[in-house]
Amino acid sequence: MRRVKRPYVICHMVPSLDGRIVTKGWKLSSSALAEYERTARKFKADAWMIGRISMEPYAGKAKVPVRKVSRPIPRTDFVAPHDAESYAIALDPSGKLTWKSNDIDGEHVITVLTEQVSDDYLAFLQARGVSYLFGGKTRLDLEQVLGKLRKAFGIKKLLLEGGGKINGSFLAAGLIDEVSVLVAPLVDGSVGTPSLFDASEGKGAAQPLRLVSFEKRRGDLLWLRYKPKR
Predict the structure, then answer these.
(1) Cα–Cα distance between 17 and 5 in angstroms, integer?
(2) pLDDT tens per residue, range 131-152
């Protein structure tokens, strides 16, 4: 079966030494935090992707108005007019993000939905100039989503910066081409908080990796890059 042409996906994250990714309370130095952005820029990616909860601070809190017309809106992808060269992508299956703007620091917003979202919400996104893609009827088909991002927006390289479940879903689907981690100089020690990859309950499907490079960075961070063994 012919695979969908899609972007090259790099999972770029800052985990603790024990693999946790909730940074609140870590008290990392400003130089350590800046290293994350510096290393991310080295990839020269066309887009970055996170989940709904992580995107909420960027989206803002606007109100979704109730439409005065009852004509249904077809469940087809919507590419809003824009002149951006890079993109901020939100995985928001239920359509809960209430965008104040269609860009984040000049990067055009794309939100990924399921067909279960309301017509009112689709009308709201269109009025805001936010592009949207459908990834499935009730759940997201991640490979299909990546194919659409490549075809509709020309995205060739994508930084995946999600939570454990999103990263784990991409890993389980075989859609991660590179893992880039800046290991923070601390041990989190918590139990039950998200880790770098939370693919399944209990024992997951282990993915062998090969080391591409390693480098000590500012703030005592260790930058490790791996690619899957396939």
Answers:
(1) 35
(2) 999 999 999 999 999 999 999 9
pLDDT (mean) for 16-21: 93
Q: How far apart, in whole angstroms, are the C-alpha atoms of residue 6 and residue 81?
A: 22
Residue bearing the bigger pLDDT, 111 or 194 = 111
Tens of pLDDT, residue by residue over 22-73, are 888 888 888 888 999 999 999 999 999 999 999 999 998 888 999 888 899 9
Pairing verdict, β 103-104 and 107-113: antiparallel
| CA end-to-end span of the chain | 17
Distance CA 97, CA 52 (A): 7
Instruction: Report the distance separating Cα 163 and Cα 52, nearest Å.
Output: 10
For residue 1, what pLDDT band results from cuts at 50, 70 and 90? very low
Phi and psi, residue 41, nearest 5° = -65, -25
Of 178, 173, 175, which Cα lies nearest the Cα of 210?
A: 178
Tell me the two tokens of residue 19.
Answer: 């693999």
In the predicted model, is pLDDT for residue 167 greater than 80? yes
Beta strand residue intervals within the chain, DSSP E: 8-13, 47-51, 87-91, 103-104, 107-113, 131-134, 157-160, 178-183, 209-217, 221-228
Q: Look-up: residue for tokens 């066309």?
A: 46
CA dihedral 173, 174, 180, 183 (to 10 degrees): 60
The Cα–Cα gap between 177 and 11 comes to 8
Burial of 3 (0-12, 13-18, 19+ CB in 10 A): exposed
